[in-house]
Amino acid sequence: MENTLHIIGGGMAGSEAAWQAAQLGVKVIIHEMRPAVETFAHQTGNLAEMVCSNSFRSDDSEQNAVGLLHWEMRAAGGIIMASADKHRLPAGGALAVDREPFAQWVNDTLHAHPNVTVEYGEITALPEDGHWIIATGPLTSSALGAAIAQETGADALAFFDAIAPIVYAESINMDVAWMQSRYDKGETEEEQKAYLNCPMSKAQYEAFIDALLAADKTEFHEGETAGYFDGCLPIEVMAERGRETLRFGPMKPVGLTNTHKPDEKAYAVVQLRRDNALGTLLNIVGFQTKMKYGAQTEVLRMIPGLEEARFARLGGIHRNTFLNSPTLLDDQMRLKSRPNIRFAGQITGVEGYVESAAMGLLAGRLAAAEIQGRTIETAPQNSAMGALIHHITGGAEAKTFQPMNVNFGLFAPLEDSGIKGGRRGRKDRYKAYTDRAKGEFNQWLEAQS
What we know:
Blueprint lengths: L4 E4 L3 H12 L4 E5 L22 E4 L6 H11 L3 H8 L1 E2 L4 E4 L1 H14 L3 E5 L10 E4 L7 H11 L4 E7 L2 E3 L9 E2 L9 H4 L2 E6 L1 H13 L20 H6 L27 E7 L6 E4 L8 H8 L10 E3 L2 E7 L2 H4 L5 E2 L2 E6 L9 H19 L12 H12 L30 H23 L1
Parallel strand pairs: 1-2, 1-7, 2-6, 7-17
Antiparallel strand pairs: 3-5, 4-5, 8-15, 9-13, 9-14, 10-11, 11-12, 12-13, 16-17
């Protein structure tokens, strides 16, 4: 048992960590509390279940940092990207997936691996010995969360994640809505028509904002604080920041032409994206919400085209727990006070499916090497994965640490590149970042083979 890797949590990070270690020849036990212990957001007991959006965001590995992270995870043989590619849906330049078969395939593949065992039940205390990775994500159980807080000697930071509603496609009025990706982005007609668009006039938008601000919202429990991650703000919180905020955010009308009224420019547009391969379910893009269920249906049916919408899932809000990783974790992702325990995924202070899975990939490889008596360096800092892990384990300011998506702002500057700064040189600069990252990441992988 001393050479077995135990992983608490079978989400994106835990699944990826298990796969990486198992592929390297290490015996792995995944400890998953679902379905015996349910959470607010999960619907099944499958490993790697997606609970928020079904999008992995941009898949452009030359001009986008998250697309580069996709590339690195594919290069490392990641299971999450393998399933995403197998179950991808049209989404313009983004990578969106059919969430149920995506999770089912990861679940079945891990269960079938000879080096992987899955044990169901809640772990409520920190293990005293053995090799462990804690990848419990934003919905860490209260008992384990309390144990982590007690060990670290500091209150776990927390913010609140909101979930977007999902609509049955057949209930949408296509005499009002139309299919088009922004700026017709995509190489195929299917990609260029990956989004469903619902237009609003100025009067409709103003009425919608009024109703949104007046709607009943979920109240927080005593002692909870409502800190939000900016990449996942509820729509009503955005509206509270200014009446035009949504129109310059998820409801921006640019790059779209109403096929029903091509000469009429919409004041605002609500977009929906396919949520399953059949196209029978659509999620409302960027419409995370903390409105109560009754208010949600009333307010969302004010959107032109959704007047008679039926919802497969309404939105909701849940607590997201994460560590102050710059003070608590070393560069091998180990808890400084208990180096037999690593952390991975959103609990480390990264935000997003891909970032969470990437931290699982790193933790799995680092833990496997340690168990096998090898020492490997963490991912190179000039790679997307390395930039992210460097940020959360030392590059960020501990006093103001907040969850972070991967972005080029985390990358070390290019030395003597001759590339222009500012917006004019951005395309060349991003290409140089990604070229450098791919070269160094490949060298890192080759050093482990």
